[in-house]
Write a structure and sequence with these properties.
By secondary structure, the protein is α+β, with helices and mostly antiparallel strands. The chain has three helices and four strands. The termini are far apart.
Length: 115
């Protein structure tokens, strides 16, 4: 007879404490002069990857949340907000489009009010 070595009350993974959790920020951006045939969110992602490399881009925890006609929301971690804004400057010089950061928030609900 084979018996199971696991107990019925097996240990569950503990949730991360708030001090260890990554704190996210939501950045609302606006495109001042949109160009046809260019996806802005993909251009921002490519510019960040070009500036900071694959490892730096992965550390940014970059996520596109919502994109409308000329505005959008990007989620990143708290330490990478300035890196994301710097990529806007380089993208403005490279692609000749005007991308401006309008608002940075800690909650998605508040950021959507500025969208």
């Amino acid at each position: 007879m084979i018996t199971s070595t696991k107990s019925k009350n097996s240990a569950k993974l503990k949730a991360l404490s708030p001090s260890l959790r990554l704190k996210t920020r939501y950045l609302v951006y606006e495109v001042l002069n949109p160009t046809k045939g260019l996806t802005i969110a993909k251009s921002i992602e490519n510019q960040c990857r070009e500036l900071y490399g694959i490892i730096g881009f992965a550390a940014m925890d970059f996520r596109k949340i919502e994109v409308k006609a000329n505005k959008g929301i990007i989620m990143t971690n708290r330490k990478s907000v300035d890196k994301l804004k710097a990529s806007f400057v380089f993208l403005n010089k490279k692609e000749n489009i005007g991308i401006v950061s309008r608002y940075v928030s800690g909650s998605l609900k508040k950021a959507k009010t500025y969208l």
